[in-house]
Amino acid sequence: MKGYLLAQVHVHDPERFKLYSAQVTGLVERFGGRFLVRGGAHEVVEGAGGGDRRVVIEFASLAAARQFYRSAAYQEILPIRLTASSASVVLVEGTQ
Q1: Could you give the CA distance from residue 72 to residue 38 in angstroms, rounded to a whole number?
Q2: CA-atom Rg of the chain in angstroms
Q3: Given strand 3-11, what is the order of strands in its sheet?
Q4: Structural domains in the chain plus CATH codes
Q5: Are 87 and 10 in contact, with CB atoms under 8 Å apart?
Q6: Which residues, at least 6 apart from 42, have a Cβ–Cβ distance to it below 8 Å?
Q7: Confidence at residue 52, expressed as pLDDT on a 0 to 100 scale
């Protein structure tokens, strides 16, 4: 079954966030992931819907998503995102 990283992000330092974005793209690909949603217009139809940016990344499995997030390479760039934004990030196992 596929694994997904789902994030709701509020960017408060766009210039610094660009540094993170530039590095995370290749890293996601290196771990076999692909962005299904990366920003874009959205409409909250229920609940609080925190954040101004949505991200969905698909991986081959939940284990692969976990490997990406916990990798030394991602942990190295994570502080950039943490200082440029606040987020809720969830790893989810897909149904197919």
Answers
A1: 23
A2: 13
A3: 34-38, 53-59, 3-11, 85-93
A4: 6-93 (3.30.70.100)
A5: yes
A6: 49, 54
A7: 86
Average pLDDT of the residues of the chain: 94
Q: Is 5 left (phi over 0), alpha (psi -120 to 50) or beta?
A: beta
pLDDT band at 45 (very low <50, low <70, confident <90, very high): confident
Q: Is residue 48 classed as helix, strand or coil in its secondary structure?
A: coil
Residues 27 and 68: their CA atoms lie apart, in Å, by 8
- Report how far residue 95's alpha carbon sits from residue 22's, in angstroms, rounded to the nearest whole number: 30
Predicted confidence band of residue 48 (pLDDT cuts 50, 70, 90): confident
pLDDT at 49: 76
Cα separation of 30 and 41, whole Å? Answer: 27
Of the pLDDT bands very low, low, confident and very high (cuts 50, 70, 90), residue 50 is: confident
The answer to whether the CB of 54 falls within 8 A of the CB of 78 is no
